[in-house]
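Deliverable D4.2, example record:
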Amino acid sequence: MGNPAGYPYPAPVPYRMTWVATPPPGVSTGPRPVRRPAPYQGPPAYPAAPRWGLPRLAWRVTRSLPGAVDRPRADATTLTRQAGLAGAILWAVAVTALLAGAGEIWRYTLLVLGRGEALSAGVVAASNALVLTTGLLAVCLELAALVLVLRWLLLAGELAGELVGYRPARPSWQLLLGVLLPVLNLFVAGSVLAELEHAALAAPRTARPTPSRLVRYWWGAWALGELLAIGTLLLGTRGDLQARADDVLWHAVTDLVAVVVVVLTVRVLRMITGLLAPDGHRTSFGRVIEVRDAPRPPLRPTRPAGAAR
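Output generated by the structure prediction step:
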């Protein structure tokens, strides 16, 4: 074959090959025999108990994969239940703090009356018992409420991230440290609630969070309560009689402000929970709440006789 015009190399010669496919030896090339299904002989029977089978354990999430974390996923039901439990404990804290404040006011009144007249020993003992009992009970309930509110805060942040499509700005450990550390939580706690409210409202990520009036009230009451608690602890270090009387009065004011903080906390929990899970359900995921004007489905659908199961 000659070279085409302008082609510097010889033209390639095509190879002509014929492939013949043959079955391997020993394989039949005829039609396959039709196997008829054997008649049903009943359930399998064993002369002894078989040694194979599944382990006698309940269904568990596997932990064999590296990095697998067995943690329940946040959903509307869990968030609503957590908010209800935290709200119940918070109301108990409010009642206990109110009683503690009333006991401190009673004690201060007795101190004022004791300047000019003798007091009954039983009245003084009852006042001291009321203050000590409500104070210890309030501390225990506040610790329980703190754990529940932090749990709710983590669940709400995770659920809000699923709703808006982006994760919270702070990881969990930074959020916990910012809420628990004194003085630092004066600034971080309010900003965390403002960011959570911003995400619950499905606001864009690029927009700056603007806290609502309720969140701003809570932030101010939270800061005032913490400053009063720190000031009361510092004033309690003095040892003169007037300082002790002032300490009782400051304890009463701190307890009353704590009641305001707890009530506002309950309202904030309900507000954000209502935004993330209205009526306790997430309707944004297309969950069927009610079916109207639809025919009733048959109890057992009909199946043709020869249909495969």
